[in-house]
């Protein structure tokens, strides 16, 4: 976290592009996508963002509104409601992402 700098909307789009591209072009380890000097060198990944920045963003990325989260000791009538919130949040973001593509 000592290397943290604020992210931008453009950088998040690049991060999601990396996620999509990783689904298309699969390797055994994350490092292989950024590795130089191999038979299959993917310059595309290095041009989008550095490996260190990718790791940092994925460690901090979450799809949840912290203000809507119940307090740790509060009892809920719907115990799985907190685990469903990220899915609901993503469904709301999809139309926005589709318009940009």
From TrEMBL:
Keyword Transmembrane set for record: yes
Keyword ATP-binding: no
Keywords: Membrane, Transmembrane, Transmembrane helix
Domain PiggyBac transposable element-derived protein: 3-79
Superkingdom in the source lineage: Eukaryota
InterPro entries hit by this protein: PGBD (IPR029526)
Residues annotated as transmembrane: 12-30
PANTHER family recorded: PIGGYBAC TRANSPOSABLE ELEMENT-DERIVED PROTEIN 4
Protein name as annotated: PiggyBac transposable element-derived protein 4
